[in-house]
Amino acid sequence: MSKRFTEYSQFDLSQVNKDVLKKWDENEVFAKSMTERDGCPSYVFYEGPPRQMVCRVFTM
C-alpha cells in the first residue's frame, strides 16, 4: 500500500516546496481551482488579524 504523504528524513523546506509544486503541476491543481469557481461570487482572504495594525493606526 502506498503512503498518502511523503515522509522526509530531514526537514528541508526547499525540497518540500519543490515536491509540492511538482505535484500541483502534475495534477493541474491551480487550473482546476480556477475553473471550479467559474460563475461563483468572488471572495478575498485578508492576511493576518486586523488587530496588528489598529494600535499603529491610532498612534499616527
UniProtKB/TrEMBL annotation:
Record InterPro entries: Rossmann-like_a/b/a_fold
Keyword Ligase: yes
Any GO MF annotation of the entry: aminoacyl-tRNA ligase activity
The UniProt record lists the keyword Aminoacyl-tRNA synthetase: yes
Taxonomic superkingdom: Bacteria
Keywords, ordered alphabetically: Aminoacyl-tRNA synthetase, Ligase
Protein name: Isoleucyl-tRNA synthetase
Originating organism: Bacteroides reticulotermitis JCM 10512
Lineage of the species this protein comes from: Bacteria, Pseudomonadati, Bacteroidota, Bacteroidia, Bacteroidales
